[in-house]
Amino acid sequence: MIKASYEVLQPTNTQSFLVRKFDKLAFDAPYHFHEEYELTCIISGTGKRYVGSHMEDFASGDLVLLGSNLPHCWKLEPNETVLREASAVVIQFNDAFLGEEFFNKFELQLIKKLFQQSGCGVSFYGETRAEVNKLLLSLVEEKSNFRMLIGLLEILHRMASSEEYVLLDQNRIIGERSNTERERINPVFAYLV
Q1: What is the pTM of this model?
Q2: Distance CA 91, CA 41 (A)
């Protein structure tokens, strides 16, 4: 039986988080998980999004924040046009990328709450999605590491102060399980995917 694969992410020496733009090959990634949080914006493409035990259609503009160790993948519809044009922007970071206690500061309590909610997977819609997607696209083009960091904090703040979101895997069937329990249930969901 297939199981969710563990992915190890390595930021470069000049960055404390990863910002990448992917083409259609990224959508071939297996059902997987990693310790880092992941913010994904679908620039183009349609298909199915799998987050924990939740499955839903996605399309261009899809914006999702995933918590640590939450299994996930995006699979494109088998349509030749979509496959040629599919792309996404992905930011990956751990909760201590700015220091162990950084997000415990009073001013950042909304972002800390957002991180807690991300254990279910958080899908954004409306003005929040439009604004954050625009910020993400400009972040990919940014050359200054400092401006990228400030941009990421602005994005996190914008999402954290929004009410335009839906929790995806509300049962947290996978996200809150121990490693042993995850090892038993991940193969089931990977097989279904």
Answers
A1: 0.84
A2: 9
Instruction: Give the residue among 77, 69, 62 at the shortest CA–CA distance from 31.
Output: 69
- Strand, helix or coil for residue 159: helix
Burial letters for 118-156: b for 16+ Cβ neighbours within 10 Å, e otherwise? bbbbbbbeeebbebbbebbeebbeeeeeeebbebbeebb
Predicted confidence (pLDDT) per residue in 56-111, tens digit: 999 999 999 999 999 999 999 877 555 568 999 999 999 888 888 999 999 999 99
H runs (alpha helix) in the chain: 80-85, 109-117, 126-141, 145-160, 179-192
Give the distance, in angstroms, between the CA of residue 30 and the centroid of all CA atoms in the same chain.
15
What one-letter code names the amino acid at 164?
E
Q: Which residues pair with 47 in a beta bridge?
A: 58, 76
Token pair, residue 59, equals: 């399309």
Backbone angles phi, psi at 91, to 5 degrees: -115, 130
Which residues lie closer than 8 Å to 154 by C-beta, 6 or more apart?
A: 135
Residue 37: partners with Cβ closer than 8 Å, 6 or more residues away? 65, 66, 67, 68, 92, 93, 94, 95, 115, 118
Closest CA to 89 of 47, 150, 57, 45: 45
